Amino acid sequence: MRYGKRVFLIVLDSFGVGEAPDAADFGDEGSNTLGAVRYQKEFDCPNMTRLGLFNIEGVGGGVAHPAGAFGRLQELSRAKDTTSGHWEIAGLISEKPMPTFPDGFPEELLAEFSRRTGRGVLCNKPYSGTEVIKDYGKEHEKTGALIVYTSADSVFQIAAHESVVPIDELYRDCEIARELLTGDLAVGRVIARPFEGEWPYTRTSRRHDYSVTPPSETMLDIIKDAGLQTISVGKIWDIFAGRGLSESNRTESNADGMAKTLAMADRDFQGICFTNLVDFDAKFGHRNDAPGYAAALTEFDRWLPSFMDRMEEDDILLITADHGCDPSTESTDHSREYIPLLAFGDPIRSGADIGTRIGFSDISATILDYFGLDKRGTAGESFLPLISYRKSLWDTLG
After folding, report:
1. What three-state secondary structure class fits 12?
2. Which residues, at least 6 apart from 103, have a Cβ–Cβ distance to it below 8 Å?
3. Which superfamily does CATH assign the domain made up of 6-96+213-397 to?
4. Would you say residue 391 has pLDDT above 90?
5. Phi, psi of 344 (to 5 degrees)
6. What is the enclosing helix (H) or strand (E) of 89?
7. What is the pLDDT of residues 149-186, one digit of tens each?
8. What is the pTM of this model?
């Protein structure tokens, strides 16, 4: 069965492979997410190893004959957040960092937010998402006030107990915040953080992100305009505010995201399936849980063969990340790191090494090149000639 050209782009959220050259500028000197998890007893990833994960420059310990193509990419955007990382993967470089609020949000903003939501505000400072509900959850249950907090990223997060603030109301509160956060206050994401149960509480899977809309075209717009499908699995739809996407498939966990991506391999479509697996970041990186991170990578690695067995002749699988989140450092925030690139499929030459590329946007350029589409002003340089069996043909054609 042949469906035509398909690209499956899977982002292992926060799976960095070593500090970027400018890591010190971000307070992340020495960060290495892969380095923090590879020696955990829970880490067992023979399939990514065979694809070339440890053959990537600067990683070390690779196999003699990798089954895939491999390399690493350095971010050009002046950021280390989810939105900027994904946008750059899609060909849009953020020249100006999105605003952060290390001292909390302006009081006049919160006053208008409270007026429109009809609820007070608690916290208003950078905080760990698990700790903030421990410290403010009881007061929230007593008063009904919303827990508003941020982090080192450009985010406005609202936590609420589902028995106090029904989920639909929490989502409306996030929409109000998104409307208010414009101009110099235009954070990358407003995030609903519902929780439930008794103290110390449990966060639920009904998180929802409200991203700022990309200011210009990405590869998703170009692929969709060409009449191909652009399918989102996980929070990709949220990150791009739906722009350039033809379908959304929300997920509750990495396992759910992998199951939905596997189902896409059996669907007849032409275009791209863009997946984000968020648990690496949300459940393990931010919680400094290196063994848990390693176990999650092992779960993904064991899933890989079932997906690869379903790949068709013209399918390409690309595995990458959007930033780092080293679980072994004192910080619980993202880290400025290189991201990995593993590529596999019948069109891909095994053992092809793309080295170190400057710009996550080279992924976008490569995908557009594979579909034969013009970049239309998006950033990046294609590395498809380096990894494809068709290199000699392209060279002949000039």
Report:
1. strand
2. 125
3. Alkaline Phosphatase, subunit A (3.40.720.10)
4. no
5. -150, 150
6. helix 82-89
7. 999 889 999 999 999 999 999 999 999 999 999 999 99
8. 0.92
